[in-house]
Write a structure and sequence with these properties.
It is built from no helices and 10 strands. The chain is about 0% helix and about 45% strand. The protein starts with a strand and ends with a strand.
Length: about 110
């Protein structure tokens, strides 16, 4: 069965960096546009970044220039490098297999910036 497992969350000081990873399993052919969402307490889930199978990326305005999404198709893994973190980046971060179909999600990883 399809499974996505995130890792790399934790605590960081403002201005610091974290790198999130999401390993997908249960399928080998991966034509999907994968992505990261986040949900802060009391707020709706929002899209952070996406990357298609060719490596084309989109980043939300709020993270552009600070976060970078990438993927390794051979490892079925998507990454989110987060630099210059701000307290407002505090949220649970989720990866999704397909940002259009929103079919499979990871369990989420907490990122706390103080």
């Amino acid at each position: 069965h399809v499974q996505l497992v995130e890792s790399g969350g934790g605590s960081a000081q403002a201005g610091g960096s974290l790198r999130l990873s999401c390993v997908a399993s249960g399928y080998t052919y991966n034509p999907y546009c994968m992505g990261w969402f986040r949900q802060a307490p009391g707020k709706e889930r929002e899209g952070v970044a996406s990357i298609d199978s060719h490596g084309s990326t989109l980043h939300a305005a709020s993270v552009k220039g600070r976060f970078t999404i990438s993927r390794d198709n051979a490892k079925n893994t998507v990454y989110l490098q987060m630099n210059s973190l701000k307290p407002e980046d505090t949220a649970v971060y989720y990866c999704v297999r397909d940002v259009y179909g929103l079919d499979y999600w990871g369990q989420g990883t907490q990122v706390t910036v103080s």
